[in-house]
Amino acid sequence: MTASARRRCWVARTTLDVLDAEQSLLEARADRISAESNLQLAHYQLLAAMGLLTVENLQLGIPTYDPSQYYNAVRDAPATSKQGESLDRVLRAIGRN
């Protein structure tokens, strides 16, 4: 084998080694992302199993639905309204009643 042929073989082998290493790095990064995702999922599954997967416990800072508060807000409301009647008329007109 000539020196030139040996050099080409060495360059090809080095290039292949670099490509293999890059592929391994890519797979390791993908595995890391998958592991981090699985860890977060496990955290939420544990909270759910403990009954702690709630808005209050997670401190989301958003209003929560309170059935009694909603009932008190609407219990004296009329059964129908002008807006409701108008919406019903439109829905009937387009066949979505």
Features:
97 residues; 73% helix
Structural class determined from secondary elements? mainly alpha
Which assembly state applies to the chains in this document?
A: single chain
Helix content: over 70%
Strands, count: 0
Radius of gyration: 32 Å
Gap between N and C termini, in Å? 86 Å
Number of helices: 4
Low-confidence stretches: none
Listing every helix as H and every strand as E from the N terminus to the C terminus, the arrangement reads: HHHH
Report the β-strand fraction as a percent range: under 5%
Largest sheet: none
Query: What form results from the Cα inertia axes?
Result: elongated
pLDDT average, as an integer? Answer: 89
Describe this structure in words.
The chain has 97 residues and is an all-alpha fold. It contains 4 helices and no strands. The longest helix is centred in the N-terminal third of the chain and has 47 residues, at 3-49. The radius of gyration is 32 Å and the shape is elongated. The protein starts with a helix and ends with a helix.
Brief digest:
The chain has 97 residues and is mostly helical. The chain has helices spanning 3-49, 55-58, 67-74, 82-93. The chain is elongated and about 95 Å long.
